[in-house]
Specification:
Layout (H helix, E strand, L loop, with lengths): L1 H40 L1 E4 L2 E11 L3 E4 L4 E6 L6 E2 L4 E5 L2 H58 L3 H33 L5 H30 L3 H59 L1 E3 L4 E6 L6 E2 L4 E7 L4 E7 L11 E6 L7 E14 L13 E9 L11 E7 L2
Antiparallel strand pairs: 1-2, 2-11, 2-15, 3-10, 4-6, 4-9, 5-8, 6-7, 8-10, 11-14, 12-13, 12-15, 13-14
Organism: Clostridium liquoris
Protein name: Type I secretion system membrane fusion protein PrsE
Main location: other
C-alpha cells in the first residue's frame, strides 16, 4: 500500500514540474512576442513624418536661492508651484535702514555735484579777471621798456629836426608876445586898455618865455643824448613795471592753482559720494530676492515676518529653460538621431497635449540598458543616451515626470 502512495506522489511531482516548465516557456514566448512587437513600433511613420519613439524622465538641477542680506522678510510674492520669470521678485527683506542711508547718500551726491559746478564757475570767472589784469600789467611793462630803450638809443634825426622846429616856433611866438607886451604898455599909459588887459598880455608873454626854455632844453637833450639821470629814471620806471607784471602773474597763477585744487577736491568728494551711492544701491537691491532664471517654485522656506540670516536658502527653483529629458536609443537606431532634430513630448497627465523639444546631445559611448529605464526594445543589449531640451513646457512639465518622446528623423 505504501509503495502505491509513493508512486502517486512521484507522478504528482512530475506533473507539477512539467506544468511549471510549460508555464515558463509560455511566459518567455509571450515576453519575446511583446518585445518583438515593441521593436517594430520603435520607428513609426505618420502623416507628419517618421519618428523614433523613446521614453525617459525629466531632469533638472534645481537652484537653491538664498538671501544676500540678513533681515526680516516683509513680503513674499510667490507660492510653491508658481511660474516665475528671470528677475522677478520672490520676496523682500526689510530695507528701511538701507533706504534711509541711500536717500541721504543721494542728497550728499547732489551737494557734491553742485560744489563742482560752483568751483567750475569760480575758475572760469577768475580766468577772465586774471587774463585782463595780466594783460594790463604786461602792456604797462612793454610801454616802460620801450621808453627805456628809446632813452638808451638817443634821439633820431627826425626827433632832432622836430625839436629844432619846436624851438624855432617857440622863438617866433615869444617875439610876437614881446612886441604885444611893449605896445600894451603904451596903451595902458594912455588909458586905452585896463590894468586887467595888460596883466593878461603879460601872462601870455611869460608863458611864451617858458615854452622857449622848454624847447631849448629839449633841443639840447636830443643833440647831446640822454643824461644819466634820465636813463636812471627810465630804467627805474621799466623795472617797476616789470616787477608789477611778474607779481601779477605769480599771484594770479597761485590763486588759479588754489581754485583748481578746490575743483579737484570737489571732484574727489563727488566720486566718493557716487561710490557710496553705488554701494548702498547694490545693498538696497539685495533686499529684493529675485529669481535668477525662468522657472517653477518647487519649495519656499520663508514666511512674512520671519528673520532670515545671510545665505540661508529661501526657495528652490527649477529652471523651465534648463529641463532636459534623458532617453535611450538602441544601437540599431542611433544612426538616425542628429543634434537639432525636433521632438514631440507627451506626458500622462495631459495625453492630448503635445510639447516641443529638440535633441541637444548624443552620447558617443554605448552602454547596457539601465535597469531603471524602460526602453522600447527590451531585447537590445546596448543603447546610447540621448538628451533633449524642452522648448515650451508652459510650466506643465516638471522635474521627475516620466515622458514619451517622438524624435522626428524624416
Amino acid at each position: 500500500m505504501s509503495k502505491i502512495k509513493e508512486l502517486v506522489k512521484s507522478k504528482r511531482k512530475i506533473f507539477i514540474l512539467s506544468a511549471l516548465i510549460l508555464l515558463a516557456l509560455s511566459s518567455i514566448f509571450i515576453f519575446n512576442g511583446f518585445q518583438t512587437t515593441a521593436k517594430t513600433k520603435t520607428i513609426v511613420t505618420t502623416k507628419d513624418g517618421t519618428f523614433i519613439e523613446a521614453s525617459g524622465v525629466v531632469e533638472n538641477n534645481p537652484i537653491n536661492l538664498s538671501s544676500e542680506i540678513s533681515g526680516v522678510i516683509t513680503n513674499v510674492m510667490v507660492k510653491e508651484g508658481d511660474l516665475v520669470k528671470r528677475g522677478q521678485i520672490i520676496a523682500e527683506v526689510d530695507n528701511s535702514s538701507i533706504k534711509n542711508q541711500y536717500e541721504q547718500a543721494l542728497d550728499n551726491l547732489d551737494v557734491a555735484k553742485k560744489n563742482i559746478e560752483v568751483s567750475q564757475k569760480s575758475i572760469k570767472s577768475y580766468q577772465n579777471v586774471y587774463s585782463d589784469s595780466k594783460n594790463q600789467a604786461k602792456s604797462a611793462y612793454n610801454f616802460a621798456n620801450d621808453e627805456y630803450q628809446n632813452v638808451l638809443e638817443g634821439a633820431s634825426t627826425d626827433e632832432v629836426k622836430q625839436a629844432q622846429e619846436a624851438y624855432n616856433q617857440a622863438l617866433i611866438n615869444l617875439k610876437y608876445m614881446e612886441n604885444n607886451l611893449n605896445a600894451s604898455k603904451t596903451l595902458l599909459t594912455s588909458g586905452k586898455i585896463t590894468q586887467m588887459n595888460y596883466d593878461e598880455i603879460k601872462k601870455n608873454y611869460n608863458l611864451a618865455v617858458s615854452q622857449v626854455n622848454t624847447a631849448s632844453a629839449k633841443l639840447d637833450q636830443v643833440k647831446t643824448g640822454p643824461s644819466s639821470a634820465n636813463v636812471k629814471a627810465a630804467k627805474d620806471k621799466m623795472s617797476q613795471a616789470k616787477a608789477a607784471y611778474e607779481l601779477s602773474v605769480s599771484n594770479g597763477d597761485m590763486q588759479l592753482k588754489q581754485l583748481e585744487n578746490q575743483y579737484e577736491m570737489a571732484k574727489l568728494k563727488y566720486d566718493q559720494a557716487q561710490t557710496i551711492v553705488n554701494q548702498l544701491k547694490k545693498e538696497l537691491s539685495k533686499t529684493e530676492i529675485k529669481s535668477p532664471t525662468d522657472g517653477i517654485i518647487n519649495l519656499l522656506t520663508i514666511n512674512k515676518g520671519e528673520f532670515t540670516p545671510l545665505g540661508k536658502p529661501v526657495a528652490e527653483i527649477s529652471g523651465t529653460n534648463d529641463m532636459e529629458i534623458k532617453v535611450y536609443v538602441s544601437e540599431a537606431n542611433i544612426g538616425h538621431i542628429k543634434v537639432g532634430q525636433e521632438a514631440n513630448i507627451h506626458i500622462d497627465s495631459t495625453s492630448e497635449e503635445t510639447f516641443k523639444g529638440k535633441v541637444i546631445r548624443i552620447s558617443s559611448n554605448a552602454e547596457f540598458t539601465p535597469k531603471n529605464i524602460q526602453t522600447k526594445e527590451e531585447r537590445v543589449n546596448t543603447v546610447f543616451e540621448v538628451r533633449l531640451q524642452i522648448l515650451d513646457s508652459k510650466g506643465v512639465i516638471k522635474p521627475g515626470m516620466p515622458v514619451d518622446v517622438n524624435i522626428k528623423i524624416n
